[in-house]
Amino acid sequence: MNKDDNAVPSDPEHDKSGVFESSYRGQEPPEPDIITFHSEDTSGSAKRPSKPHAERYEYSQKELQALRQAIEHNGVFRLAFYFLDYILRAQTALFEQIHSQKDLARIIWSMSVLSILLSSIYGLVMGMYNGVLQALSSAIKLPILFLFTALICVPSLYTFNVLLGQRFKFLQTVALMMMTLGTTTILLVSLAPIAFFFTLTTPDNYQFLMLMHVLIFALCGIYGVRYLYRGSSYIAFRMEQPLNNLLLRLWIVIYAIVGMQLGWRLRPFIGSQGIPFELLRNEVGGNFYISVWKSLLELFLGKS
Predict the structure, then answer these.
(1) Helix, strand, or coil here: 246?
(2) Handedness of CA 297, 298, 302, 304 (dihedral sign)
(3) CA–CA separation, 270 vs 127, rounded Å?
(4) Separation CA 46–CA 153 (nearest Å)
(5) How many beta carbons lie within 10 A of that of residue 162, not counting itself?
(6) pTM for the complete prediction?
């Protein structure tokens, strides 16, 4: 018997774009069940990356097939909760689905529904500090904040990518953005019980609660854009082209600034106790950064 009889047959597409490994070791195997890709994080060199500088992507064919069946046979609302599980445990399968450009519209709509529902829950917790009206208002305004930030920033991300030679399609860019929002809001909801606990136990410390929510949003946002970066890297790698790292990092900064400024214009989300309910603040002066700085001074130094 030839020593190569048990080898996994070569897949030209995978051979060109990276290295894959299979857990199957039988005679004449089908598609490998576990596919692993190794790519450089900073692309541009044809040399195979060393392990410390390599990015590892792995997904199961069973997971990918189950994902495609779920997209095909489930409605938008049910699919949204299906994605909740996939974001947590099978991100690369989602990246591969976006790379394939199949059913992107359904992915976008379902991730939008998921983001709206989860951000509404966290908005409800934020507004509980100042009563029912503030809670309902924040539950409406927080999804608007996330969706409008994405709506403002996605065209620039796509346009810059096209001008600099990336071959991402517009719907691929939108799908990555919505999955980023999905990741961010999943993390927000996971931290909502902690926020609710401090809302109940520190009812007279508005500055502490505001800084706590800012910190929670920062942590969740950082992880969310990390997901966007990883997804963009994967798709660029599968398209056999380098990712413009500098451009993507600059865009992430722009995305954060737009989100913070829009959040400032849509305030209040928590609402100060003793002040009548306001849907939007009338005052025009100041900005997000000044407000955070004043809260830090008041919390730690007692200065207002």
Answers:
(1) helix
(2) positive
(3) 5
(4) 32
(5) 14
(6) 0.79
Element (DSSP H or E) covering residue 35: strand 34-40
Confidence of residue 207 (pLDDT cuts 50, 70, 90): confident
Q: In sequence order, what DSSP letters do the residues of 76-122 get, joined into one string?
A: HHHHHHHHHHHHHH-HHHHHHHHHHT-SHHHHHHHHHHHHHHHHHHH
The residue behind tokens 């904040």 is 145
Pick from 97, 127, 123, 126: which is nearest to 110 by CA?
97
Q: CA dist 175 to 31, 139, 156, Å?
A: 27, 24, 15
Please state, in angstroms and rounded to a whole number, the distance separating the CA atoms of residues 251 and 23: 39
- In whole angstroms, give the CA distance from residue 168 to residue 190: 32
94-150 residue pLDDT tens: 999 999 999 999 999 999 999 999 999 999 999 999 889 999 999 999 999 999 999
